[in-house]
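Bumping with the actual sequence this time:
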Amino acid sequence: MAQQHSNWVEARQKVVAANIAHADTPGFRGSDVAPFASLMSADAKPVGMATTHAGHMVADGSDAKIGVVARDSTGISLESEMAEISAVRREHGLNTAIVKSFHRLYLTSIRG
C-alpha cells in the first residue's frame, strides 16, 4: 500500500507541475488526480502483492489505476497550485515516514 501511495503522490506531483507550467496557456484546463482514498475503496480493484520468490504467498488482484480527472474551473490560480504542491510535499513526507517506520520494524525483527 505504501508503494501505491508513493505512485499516487508521484502522479499528483506531475499533474500539479503541468498545471503550473501551463498556467498562462490559453484554453488549458487544469486537472488533478483522484483522491487516494478512492483507490483504496471497496469499488477499486484490490492492490496485489508482488511475489519475487517461489516461496512467497500468492495474492489475487492487480494494482489500482490512478485516474487523472479534469477540474471544474477553466482557469488556473498559481496560489492554489502552490497550495497543492505543499499538500503533495506533506503526502510525500507522510509516505516516507511510513516506509521508514516499516523498515525499522523489519530490521528490529531480523536482529531479534
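The C-alpha cells above came from a reply further down the thread. Residues 60-64 have pLDDT under 50 and may be disordered.
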